[in-house]
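Reagents: none. Just compute today. Exonuclease.
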Amino acid sequence: MLVAHNAPFDLEFLRRKEGVIGLSFDHPVLDTVLLSAVVFGQSEGHSLDALTHRLGITIPEEARHTAIGDTVATADAFLKLLPALKARGLVTFGDVVAEVRQHGRLLKDLNG
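Predicted 3D structure written out:
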């Protein structure tokens, strides 16, 4: 499983190199943009900055917009979102996937 923030953006880069490295990136994906929408509603902001602020996660200024900084922030956000998802009765991967499908248009809006 892959956890990412705005996963289509990252997956595009990974998929461009599939032929070169001989691997396929077809793992299940949980996108923290969509998880944020499930927990906080679609009308809220779902950028990584908005999500981490809402969850009380601090990204050091020198780490912001770096691969490791954004990765750590996304991982922290994912871990903090899990109890909120569970509180909504979403306890399995299938439960979460079914719920986030209702929010897929957010990714189009972010990338469109």
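The chain has one domain: 2-111.
Action item: order primers for follow-up constructs.
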